[in-house]
Amino acid sequence: MTSISPLSSWNSAPSRTSSTTANRADAASPSPVSTPSSIVAFSPESVNGSGGAALPKPPMVWESATRDKVSEAMTKSFSSYAFGGRFSGLGAAMLGQAKLGNYNFSQAMRQPPPSTTPNVYGAAGIAPGSLHGNGEDNVSLSITTRSGVEIKLSLDSQGDGLAVRMTTSGELSDAETRALGELAKGFQDAIDGMGQSTPKIKLEGLMQFDQQVLESVKLHAEVKVRGEPESVQTLDFQADGAQRKVAFSGVAGSLDLKVDASALNTLGSKERQAKALGSYMKQFDQAASRGHGDAGLMAMLKDSFTALHSNTAAPQTETAMPETGKWRLAAEDKSILTGLADFSASVSQAVKFSNPMRGTEKDGFNYEVSQKTAQTGASQDARSIRQQQQSKLSANFHQSLVAGVPLRLTDNTESQNYTYHQIEDTASSDAQVTYKDGKLVQASLRQEANQSTQVKKYFLGKLESDKTTPGNYSVLRDLLPVLGSYKSGDKDATSEARIEQRKQALLALNDDVLLQSYPGQTISLWQADVLPGEAVS
Predict the structure, then answer these.
(1) Do 373 and 385 form a contact (C-beta atoms < 8 A)?
(2) Which of 65, 155, 475, 528 is most exposed, with minimal Cβ within 10 Å?
């Protein structure tokens, strides 16, 4: 994966204001012992070699004379190279002010360029307030309360300046103020995640917003990647009562995840959800290992998947009609469900062409996974519930013939010693139950998994072998014996014992309905690197 400079590397980007370009790099010099890379003004004597020194930096120019915790954080983060870069501590400081009742404020700071002639009016003309909305790196947070008040926060940075702003569309209650303050750490964690050299999606804190007080939370982050060539990485997040979604785009590739939070009656207990999440985490790891997916992108998928499935409302009781969802579901109905909200997720790795001698060979990784639940029927007694899970993996990658030896493919045939892998995997799970006149009349579970691995082996540029290895798994189960009217062969069993046996049967079915992309297979990075037909020691 291409290395991404953290947010602290702001000084390397050119300013959008030509008059301030001269001191951008100097304004954020990482260390007093580093070799200066600043563009500074020189006296005529220094140009002629008479030993003149670089001019000292003039004082910062501020938008407002007000000094508070936010201004202090700006001063510290602007010159600091601590973890988190330019926005380090700023997000938390801004929401901290909201907790104190300061909902509307604006502050900006700018470093004027060195000048041989001090000019107070010239410095004031730099207009630090113009940075608002114009940062090369920027983060914005929008929160809407249940009462309809909208709170907006923005952070902007360029090499020579920093700006923050917070506005509200109305007065906030004490409960709303507390709810905002409780998001301070979560907001800062999300900012710091995007500021790392390998970006991370950290949304757990923001997802814990008080749903009784706040209606929605939206985050947008855009960070300029200082490299060759320059690029931009973006993160968009939204959560409300109906949906939760994350979209990321960067050097390594892209990620898109959507979760439907509207059907609360299909959700399982916290324990049930935790088990389903663990199963999906395992399958994500299996797909990444088998397809040699980018570790950073797959970590983002796991982190965002876990975060978006958190803070879900408690399931409805079996006797009450659900607030959201078509029908009240019985224990038998929920036993065929994962317990998670419906979702769709995709990861697409940036395609690379690493073999100059064979332009048709690409290195890529595309993974999709989803769950969809349908509740149909004319009435509660004639209902039907169906849940479908699917996954698909398409991957291509090159490997060296010698384990541990890096592969360096060139135009020279002597470098053309490698294997080229093409992976195509699919998996599905389809569970459904149907009622007629209030009685269960149909219940089934169908699961399938298919794998295809094609490996081409080249030695000195010549194709030595081309093998395709398939793998197939399919099962169809009639669930009526498990879910139908309970019949015990033990006439002496107590009612409590029968209830416990029934409970254990439904729990076992809970495990069986989870998607199985690689049933019965143990996939590790080492095994994924072994060619088909070779033994694993």
Answers:
(1) yes
(2) 65
DSSP helix/strand/coil, 191: helix
Question: In this structure, are residues 384 and 361 in contact, taking their beta carbons and an 8 Å threshold?
Answer: no
Using the Cα atoms of residue 302, residue 375, residue 389 and residue 479 in order, give the sign of their dihedral: positive
Q: Is 469 helix (H, G, I), strand (E, B) or coil?
A: strand
What's the one-letter identity of residue 143? I
d(CA 350, CA 253) in angstroms, rounded, equals: 5
Cβ contact 218:238 at 8 Å: yes
Which among 223, 186, 221, 203 has a CA at the least distance from the CA of 6? 223
Residue closest to 420 by CA, chosen among 444, 454, 377? 454
Q: How far is CA 141 from the centre of its chain?
A: 16
Q: What is the C-alpha separation between 443 and 434, in angstroms, rounded?
A: 7
SS3 367: strand
Give the predicted TM-score (pTM) of the model.
0.82
- Alpha carbon distance 442, 425 (integer Å): 30
Region at 65 (left for phi over 0; alpha for psi -120 to 50; beta for the rest): alpha
> What length does the chain have?
537
Is residue 381 within 8 A of residue 437, CB to CB? The reply is yes
Letter string b/e over residues 73-108, b meaning 16 or more CB atoms within 10 A of that residue's CB = bbeebbebbeebbbbbbbbbbbbbbbeeeebebbbb
Helix, strand, or coil (residue 174)? helix
- How deeply is 33 buried, as exposed, middle or buried, from its count of CB atoms within 10 A (0-12, 13-18, 19+)? exposed
Helices (H), 309-405: 331-334
DSSP three-state, residue 342? coil
pLDDT in tens, the chain (537 residues): 444 444 433 433 333 333 333 333 333 333 333 333 333 232 333 334 444 556 677 788 999 888 889 999 999 888 765 334 789 899 999 999 988 888 899 999 998 887 644 444 444 445 777 899 998 899 999 999 999 999 999 999 988 889 999 999 999 999 999 999 999 999 999 999 998 878 999 999 999 999 999 999 999 999 888 776 778 899 999 999 899 999 999 999 999 999 999 988 899 999 999 999 999 999 999 999 999 999 999 999 999 999 999 988 655 555 455 555 678 888 889 999 999 999 999 999 999 999 999 999 999 999 999 999 999 999 989 999 999 999 999 999 999 999 888 999 999 999 999 999 999 999 999 999 999 998 999 999 999 999 999 999 999 999 999 999 999 999 999 998 888 765 444 555 666 766 667 777 787 888 899 999 998 777 765 333 333 333 333
Is residue 253 within 8 Å of 294, Cβ to Cβ? yes
**Number of helices (H), then strands (E), in the chain:** 13, 15
Task: Extract long-range pairs of 292-295: CB within 8 Å, 24+ residues apart.
Answer: 292/365, 292/395, 292/397, 292/421, 292/528, 293/347, 293/349, 293/365, 293/367, 293/395, 294/1, 294/252, 294/253, 294/349, 294/365, 295/1
> What is the C-alpha separation between 143 and 65, in angstroms, rounded?
28
